[in-house]
Amino acid sequence: MIYRKLSAAGDYTFGQSGNDFLRDSSATVAQAVLTRLRLLQGEWFLNTDEGTPYNARVLGKNRKATADQAIRQRIAATPNVVSVDSYASQLQNRSLRVQALITTSFSAGQQKTSSIPLGDRLDYTFVLDTSLLI
Length: 134
Hints:
23% of the residues lie in helices and 27% in strands. The chain is an alpha+beta fold. The longest helix is centred in the N-terminal third of the chain and has 13 residues, at 26-38. The model is unreliable at 108-125 and 130-134 (pLDDT under 50).
């Protein structure tokens, strides 16, 4: 599994040759989860079924249960995610904060014991500002 690294601003990194890529690591899987969560359903023209169903299952009143289910399914379906060990979400103002602890197939040579957090740059918490969605 190979992914091009993202900068702190969320852009692809260039100019460092092989150091611009993540390879077969828990960090690679974490970035894959993050980019999958950022892809809106219908946004990718080659497969409009691909993406996180924010409009259909996440946004709106009284949608926390369906939102959590959709996001957990999206995380669990990411290649090399073995399990979602814990999951929490918080809707505050117009931001949805999701934090998940996942076990990957690359976890320190042991497939079941090492987990990584999913969230903001360091701990990989995913924050969706719903005011940015149309």
